[in-house]
Amino acid sequence: MSEPEQSPATGRPGAGHPAEHPALAPVRFLLGHWEGAGVVGYPTIESARFGQEITFSHNGKPFLIYTSRTWLLDEEGQIGRPLAMETGFWRPQPHDELEVLLVHPTGICEIYLGQVTGTKIEMATDAVVRTSTAKEVTAGHRLYGLVGADLAYAYDMAAVGQPLQAHASAQLKRVG
Fold first, then answer.
1. 48-62 confidence digits (pLDDT tens)
2. DSSP states of 78-110
3. Hey, how many other C-beta atoms are within 10 angstroms of the C-beta on 127?
4. How many CA atoms lie within 13 A of 122 on its CB side?
5. Do residues 150 and 171 touch, judged by C-beta distance below 8 A?
6. Nearest-CA neighbor of 120 among 83, 154, 86?
């Protein structure tokens, strides 16, 4: 694997993209920019439609860089107020295992452990840490996978005294 060319002025990677690390092979199908819509609900909130964009990228190291942001959609599908955001790192491990670290600006940090099976990923929280001002989230379960060319996912959550149950799901199209 060759190192990307670096700018002599900054020492940072130049115009070329770094080579993909071989450890990313099991999760390569996630790479790119995805956009779409889904539904969110929970016993403590009103159900709603939302828009979402997710980006999976890499910098040549053995992990994916992940960002997600969502926003409310009105009845006509127009963009409304911002909803959740999260960012983190997806770290493939031997035997198609996966470690995922997610951080939310609301004061929640989650560590997921999961399994990659072809183009399906199933994972559950190993740990949830939160600040004193964050909402009480105690567990999560996520399922990601390709449905045709689309990325679909479902997210179950245990929070604010509620047991683990459906919270959000979406179907996203690759746009880049």
1. 999 999 999 999 999
2. -EEEEEEEEEEEEEEEGGGEEEEEEEETTTEEE
3. 11
4. 2
5. yes
6. 154
